[in-house]
Amino acid sequence: MIERLHRRMLKLRAKSGSLWSMFLGIGYLLSVFALGIAFYMGYEHWDFASSFYMVVITLSTVGYMEVNELSETGRIFTAFLIMGGVGGFVYIAGAFAQVLIDGRLQIMWGKRKMMKEINKLRGHFIVCGHGRIGSIVVQEIMADGHDVVVIEQDPDLIDKMEQDGILCIEGDATSDEILLTGGLLHAKSLISALTSEAANVYVTLTARQLNPDINIVARAGDKSHISRLELAGADRVVLPHFIGGLRMAQNVLRPTVTNFIELAVRGGIDLQMEELLVSPGSELCELDLIDSKIRPRFNLIIIAIKKGSGEMVFNPGPKEIINANDTLLAVGKKSNLNEIKEIL
Question: Which residues form the RCK N-terminal domain (predicted)?
Answer without folding.
Answer: 122-239
